[in-house]
Amino acid sequence: MATSSNRPSMQYPKGSGIEHLFEGGLWIGAKVAGQTAVSTASVDAASGYTTGAAGFEFTAPLGNSINQRSSLTSNNYYSSSAISHQDLLIDFTDKYTIVPGTTTPISSHNVPLGADVHLETYAWNYGYADYFVICNYKITNHSSTAWDSAYIGLWTDLIVRNVNVTSASGTSFFNKGACGWLDTAKAIYAYDYNGDPGYTNSYGAMLFLGAEYRNLFFHPDNANAITAAGYPNPLVNANFWRYKDLGPAPPYISGFPDDDVKRYSRMKTGVNSPGSNIFLNTADNRTQLLTVGPFVQIAPNETVYFTVAFLCAKQTGPSLPHTNDDYSTRANLMSNIEWAKRTYRGEDVNNNGILDAGEDLDADNVLDRYILPSPPHDPHVKIVPGDGKIDIYWDNIAEASIDPISKKKDFEGYKLYRSNVNKGNDGNDATIAYNQIGQWDQIGDSVGYNNGFNAIKIAPTTFEGDSITYSYHYEMKGLLSGWRYEVVLTAFDEGDKNQGLDPLESSFVTNTFNVFPGTAAISDDTTAIGVYPNPFVVEAAWDGGTATSHKIYFNHLPANCLITIYTQSGDVVTSFNHETEASANSTIDWYKLNGGNPETRILASGEHAYDLLSATRQTISSGLYYFSVKDLSTGFVKRGQFVVVR
């Protein structure tokens, strides 16, 4: 679960910079022919994974790759065998003592268990499920020797920091976290105690969902059935230790296990007690271990399934700031844990691993997991920025949605959200607050406003190069051109009283758009090219606070043109092309630092931001500047001027 330094690591919300995990990995421990052996995918290490380093003992066979599939029919990876909206399939093993494809030995990896692992991860984009990922490990003993008294678990370095804000590194990055254990949930969680105040307010957690062993559901909730079958009581153990600190620190901190004997001991015995929570609510540099067992014996060619979830949750309640951790701040965390558990259980409502009477929702006589109540399909949305406005178009695909549990069409309506005008220079997309500005829903029921759809209904509408037929339109007026707005359109259903479900809403992730209103492209001989703000005095309110993150806008531009800036004496300061593609028009530093998610960015086709830098990236001085705009389609040139005051 390690990532390179420039990639998000358990980031939530998307684009926020709030990351919750430095690194994590599978541990398997057992007695093998009387010898203690533990294979680890990751351990305490300052730089994380290093090829051949001790403790990083699982590798993938040469040529192996991560495969992807999706249950979404519109997805390029659609597969009828997919479990979720995004499945990732990964295979690895501990059997190699030399890193495949190299001559590098894996340090201290002297007793491989012969464990072959097939990992599948499941993720959904539903609003009630986009904060967790389920990891389902299929672990097979492909050695010739049984694993006795086996334990399986995950070591993690859960650490919550905002990488868009913090300048900390090394120890000062990692030693600001607090953590805890929730016994009922079987979850270890962590939060930022005093690292990035006001820029995190978030929990990261991992929780044990269940294991399958010899046709038994292996979980403390099913202890009676397990012991009745002649096996020991199933245990879920939690451990915490200070990073690489060998000494224990009571009452809840065990010492760092630096060899297989100590690691197995930690896997076998937790610092937790049944029925009791643990709250380590002081800042420190701690790593965590969650393990399950004992599995009396895993024979050669025998397989065990081990399933966990990683999830995030915003802290809430009157007890904020985020240094506090109590029942009120954990309300979202507990709700999100319940949704992850509910998703895993599927038809297994009572969590006993058996298909009991009344649980077989699809009448196939098989216990199906990973069944979620489904909100309506995500509408297809078309965003058209205008001068001081945004036009939103969407289709009616959501109205044909059939819930997989109730088997009925339960579409209710649409909701439209918009952020307040956003400077984009706070470094933290997670601070954007959405205001619901519109809702339209079915007439004649007890859900919603019962206001119908006449106010937004339009004749079937299409756009050039777009195969979607749009049925609805809303004009969002009174906006400020050049400023950043987040726009979200969702569909929601009527809920299900029989299932105890409130109305479910489609994903914010899929239909969130990062929009900059402005003029549309125009190619004529009369419309003057505008510049704003003009004059530019010291800095604009939307500026990013650095010498290279200023911006002014040119508007009423042709779709494709060349913009050239001149001094009063006629020397060229710089020149650049304007195109209709947002990616081509948002290359200045302001967008890189403050422009939100580039994948959802939509700019006005007739506007272009200039960063007040010369061709050699020097800050231009105060004074009057001239510009020319050459329409590359017609060759026509327009001219104008702007003033910079510093």
Explain what you see.
The structure is a single chain. The protein is mainly beta. It has three domains: 18-345, Distorted Sandwich (Beta-galactosidase, Chain A, domain 5); 381-516, Sandwich (Immunoglobulin-like), CATH 2.60.40; 530-645, Immunoglobulin-like (Sandwich). Helix content is 6%, strand content 37%. It has five helices and 32 strands. The chain has helices spanning 171-174, 223-228, 260-268, 331-345, 589-594, and strands at 18-32, 35-40, 67-69, 86-93, 115-123, 132-141, 147-162, 177-182, 187-192, 202-213, 216-218, 235-242, 278-284, 286-298, 303-314, 381-386, 389-394, 411-419, 434-441, 457-463, 466-476, 485-493, 512-516, 530-532, 536-537, 552-555, 561-566, 572-578, 601-603, 608-610, 623-631, 637-645. Strands 3, 4, 5, 6, 8, 9, 10, 11, 13 and 15 form a ten-stranded antiparallel sheet that branches. A five-stranded antiparallel sheet has the order 2-1-7-14-12, covered by helices on one side. Strands 19-18-22-23-29 form a five-stranded mixed sheet, with no helix packed on it. A hairpin with a 2-residue loop joins strand 16 (381-386) and strand 17. The longest helix is centred in the middle third of the chain and has 15 residues, at 331-345. The chain starts with 17 loop residues before the first strand and ends with a strand.
